[in-house]
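Hello,

Our lab assistant flagged a job as stuck in the queue for most of the afternoon. It eventually completed. Since we weren't sure the result was trustworthy after the delay, we are filing this so someone can double-check. Below is the sequence as submitted and the structure that was eventually returned. Let us know if re-running is recommended.
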Amino acid sequence: MKTIIFTISFVLVSTLLKAQNQTQILDTIYANNHKNVALFFPNPIRQGITGSENFAFTYNREKEQYFGLLQATPGNESNLLIINNNGSIFSYIIRYKEVLEKLNYFIPDSTSIGNEKPFIGAVDDENKHIDSFDFKINYYERFCSYLVKRRQRIGKLKKRHDGIILKIENIVFDKEELYFVMTIENKSSLDYDVNFLNLTIQTRKKGKKKSLQSLYLEPVFTYNLPSKIKENQTVKLVYVVPKFSISDERLVLLELNEKNGERNLKLKISDKTINNPN
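-- returned structure --
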């Protein structure tokens, strides 16, 4: 079974809860690093998020199942947000406890604090489309804001040229998208004007006449993309693209191009990195 651990800041979780207009007192679930605490839900789990790295909630992302496992290491209390595949939301306070009195929780549907899909009355199709679009953009903004504050690293992916440093900090898979978290650092004495920052898939053709084919990856959302990076400034940004995978005959190229300048950088990302995001 392949499981993926998701973590998210308490601020983001709290914001999501406020969007549901809830003022409920949350139940507390205790866990430790000696035993698995099992949570069984009325519908299969689509997403499970903890608010601190000393808690881990694991579940099957490839084949939706009704249960997940919670573990914890000593530290401050946090929170756990669960979303079922029907949109039902469950939220709990989670705490570390050396001795556990309960190892299995059977969660009734009546304890749901709300649904991630807001109720929309009788409106036309155009308004429904606008509401759905706004909700998605709002989610992208909040999740990207969380990712730029997070300190997780995917590896040493960095390119330097004439005082300009281009770096991949993280690649995160969430829902149906990949989030490329990047930094651009200007250690030169001149401001850097961005002409473009592109992601492309490079494919090497076989045969006598070898050449490269490029497929441009158009972001569905960009966060904090700068037009200028001033002297001694570092900018952190995120590109959101539809999820994809590549074979070992392909790679992803991140290309930073300077407007009216020659400080251009190309950073290669291997298939192993793309196919194993955080």
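-- support follow-up --
The delay was a queue issue, not a problem with the job. The result is valid. Confidence is low (pLDDT under 50) at residues 1-23, 119-123. The chain is about 15% helix and 40% strand.
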